[in-house]
């Protein structure tokens, strides 16, 4: 094997930061040392890994092919080093990204549980909508994701974590709040604020109303659930949000759950990862702990 882990590390850093100088700063190397490592790797492989566009370094087709393989190799090397250094089989770092509902209501307890029981396992954590979680996995930015709803991309494997459901909510002062049941026609007449396109919640809602509701008066679309909750509570809007995100507002009387018999919007929260990645004991451990934790703490959801 002619190439070195150092050369692959420099390659990955340049791919991430877009320049040799930024990669050198990140790795605490001189720029000349980083340039030399990258040049040696390209010479050994016999292919250009980057297209030079001014000061920017953009991955070539060969670089795009190499990057996921190099990243997995570097992650495996790090896990080997840290595992032996700590004499711990459960050690190292896992990159996790979750959509908003799971990030707010489930992931904090999961990370706390991992910290208590597996202190050598570090979880780096990001929050994105479902579409961006999938994109991040495809680009090897994350090793594990949590999404709302489903993913039909055949590059992605998934495993259901838990079931959830969406509810249609209004303010307590909204005219519909006093009704025993709300019709589809009344939903079509209302003004709505919803999650943005690409969000798992929005995908599930759009799928549920397809063929039932011809059009909605969508007044605003926002990424952040607290903004939507506040708009509904203080105005005459409707929204469709995860039960986990509105349960406290329902208990406080700030929001009212509308009874729409024609709509029963069930969904699941699922773990997702790339199909082509090798077995990962840290990923498997996190999934197992998450399922155990949910079973203990959310029996009645």
UniProtKB/TrEMBL annotation:
Chain segments annotated as transmembrane: none
Residue stretches making up the HTH lysR-type domain: 1-60
Pfam name, any one: LysR_substrate
Signal peptide stretch: none
Organism superkingdom: Bacteria
Family that this chain belongs to: Belongs to the LysR transcriptional regulatory family.
Identification of the protein by name: Transcriptional regulator
């Amino acid at each position: 094997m002619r190439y070195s882990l150092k050369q692959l590390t420099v390659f990955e850093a340049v791919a991430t930061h877009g320049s040799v100088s930024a990669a050198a700063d990140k790795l605490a190397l001189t720029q000349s040392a980083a340039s030399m490592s990258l040049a040696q790797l390209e010479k050994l492989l016999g292919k250009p890994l980057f297209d030079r566009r001014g000061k920017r370094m953009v991955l070539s087709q060969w670089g795009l092919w190499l990057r996921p393989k190099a990243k997995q190799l570097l992650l495996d090397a790090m896990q080997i080093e840290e595992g032996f250094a700590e004499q711990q089989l459960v050690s190292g770092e896992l990159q996790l990204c979750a959509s908003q509902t799971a990030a707010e209501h489930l992931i904090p307890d999961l990370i706390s549980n991992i910290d208590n029981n597996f202190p050598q396992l570090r979880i780096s954590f990001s929050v994105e909508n479902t579409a961006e979680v999938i994109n991040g996995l495809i680009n090897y930015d994350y090793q594990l994701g949590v999404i709302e709803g489903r993913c039909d991309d055949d590059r992605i494997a998934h495993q259901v974590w838990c079931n959830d459901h969406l509810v249609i909510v209004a303010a307590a002062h909204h005219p519909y709040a006093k009704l025993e049941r709300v019709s589809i026609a009344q939903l079509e007449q209302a003004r709505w604020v919803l999650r943005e396109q690409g969000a798992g919640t929005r995908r599930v809602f759009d799928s549920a109303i397809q063929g039932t509701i011809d059009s909605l008066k969508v007044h605003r679309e926002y990424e952040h659930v607290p903004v939507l909750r506040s708009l509904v509570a203080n105005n005459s809007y409707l929204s469709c949000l995860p039960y986990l995100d509105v349960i406290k507002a329902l208990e406080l009387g700030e929001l009212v759950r509308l009874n729409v018999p024609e709509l029963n919007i069930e969904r699941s929260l699922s773990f997702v990862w790339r199909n082509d990645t090798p077995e990962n004991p840290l990923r498997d451990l996190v999934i197992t702990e998450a399922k155990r934790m949910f079973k203990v703490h959310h029996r009645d959801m």
